[in-house]
Amino acid sequence: MQVDSFGNKLIIEGNIKSINHYNQLKSILDAMVVDNKRIVIELIDSISVTSSVIGYFSKLINVNGILLELFVNDDDLFNLLDDLGLIQAFNVKRL
Fold this sequence. Notes:
Elements: E1 2-6, E2 9-13, H1 19-32, E3 38-43, H2 51-62, E4 67-72, H3 75-83, E5 92-94
Parallel strand pairs: 2-3, 3-4, 4-5
Antiparallel strand pairs: 1-2
């Protein structure tokens, strides 16, 4: 997984699949939310998102009051997020 961030935008290439990936994302996002109330995340080619990352995204929205916009490129990931009822909560859009 490769992560690039600037301002309120996070671009993730590769799959999010390990606890190390979660820790890396959490660290980056914790720093971003200090100055931003709106976070844009692009999942360029990830085919999945771990439950810990989904839980962290939910915390950002429900506890921290962050407006999250999640852009996904993979149709299966979009459908999974739809099945989980997260399209509206995470403001999911297709890339």
